[in-house]
Amino acid sequence: MAGKKVLVVMPAFNAALTLERTFQDIPRDIVDEVLLVDDASHDETLEVAHNLGIRCFLHERNLGYGRNQKTCYTEALKLGADIVVMLHPDYQYSPKIIPALAGLVASGEYDAAIGSRILGGKARAGGMPFYKYVSNRLLTAFQNLFLGAKLSEYHTGFRAFSRRVLETLPLWENSDDFVFDNQMLAQTIYFGFRVGEVSCPTRYFPEASSINFPRSVKYGLGVLVTSLKFFLQKRGWGQFRIFSPAGRGLLETAYYSEQRLSSL
Fold first, then answer.
1. Could you tell me which of 21, 7, 165, 162 has the C-alpha nearest to residue 72?
2. How far apart are CA 120 and CA 239, in angstroms?
3. Which of 93, 254, 97, 66 is nearest to 169 (CA)?
4. Confidence of residue 206 (pLDDT cuts 50, 70, 90)
């Protein structure tokens, strides 16, 4: 991406078994730097990352998936990234799609891009559980209606964002749990940024991370709440901090320092 620094961030928790495979598939001719944020893993994630030469950042205690991403994006901006690609280190999403995602953003035609498991119709063939597929389709239909968008899905964990998007969204107002992903995408749409999509094959296997059924239900309820807040605020019937331009930005150091992070 001529003239643009592309940085891959990996929010990690117990990813020792899959990290090397994920990292080896990252196209280094496109990606300038890789940053891994470890959320106090119990396995050898950090040791594997260090052996691979990956820049690492450590949460001294487990703070949650959403908080991990807040750290990822904050540190990426500090490192001067122009385009940030978020990739799970569990090898579920193909890193080989990174050039397509980053390319959509680098083109200037889109401000963000997502790797969709639904485009191409291969989600079930890739092993997506039936209940996850059905809930994905239902929640996506609901969100397209309430957000006024036409995305193929809102629940992928493979995304790319421009620096401007990350500097604009009030991400600190979002959850520290899994619904962070959905809130961030809803914010991207709310603030008028353009979102492109790329078909992305996925793999479901024992070592790949996946939330259990109770947490999936909690996530689904969070998606519904986020959509309703979006709908109400767009019509002037409510005010919510996650859609407020005055919300905390990523580089607000006073709030950020409360994490007590250790750089490695």
1. 7
2. 38
3. 66
4. low
Distance of CA 53 to the CA centre of its chain: 23
Residues 179, 145: Cα–Cα separation, whole Å: 19
Reference 17, options 121, 114, 89; nearest CA is 89
What is the DSSP secondary structure assignment for residue 171, as one 8-state letter?
Answer: G
As a whole number of angstroms, the distance between CA 86 and CA 122 comes to: 21
Spatial distance between the Cα atoms of 94 and 44, rounded to a whole number of angstroms: 22
CA angle 202–206–209, rounded 5-degree value: 65
24: three-class secondary structure by DSSP: helix
- 241 in Cβ contact with 170 (< 8 Å): yes
pLDDT digits (tens, 9 = 90+) for 157-181: 999 999 999 999 999 999 999 999 9
Phi and psi at residue 175, to the nearest 5°:
-65, 155
How far apart CA 47 and CA 162 sit, in angstroms, is: 30
Q: Count Cα neighbours of 229 within 13 Å in the Cβ-side half-sphere.
A: 18
Task: Give φ, ψ of 16 to 5 degrees.
Answer: -60, -35
Burial class, 242, CB count within 10 angstroms (exposed 0-12 / middle 13-18 / buried 19+):
buried
Domain limits, the chain = 6-242
Other beta carbons less than 10 A from residue 145's beta carbon: 11
CATH number for the 6-242 domain, one of 3.40.50.720, 3.20.20.210, 3.90.550.10, 3.10.410.10? 3.90.550.10
Give tens-digit pLDDT for 145-158.
Answer: 999 999 999 999 99
What's the longest Cα–Cα distance across the chain?
A: 53
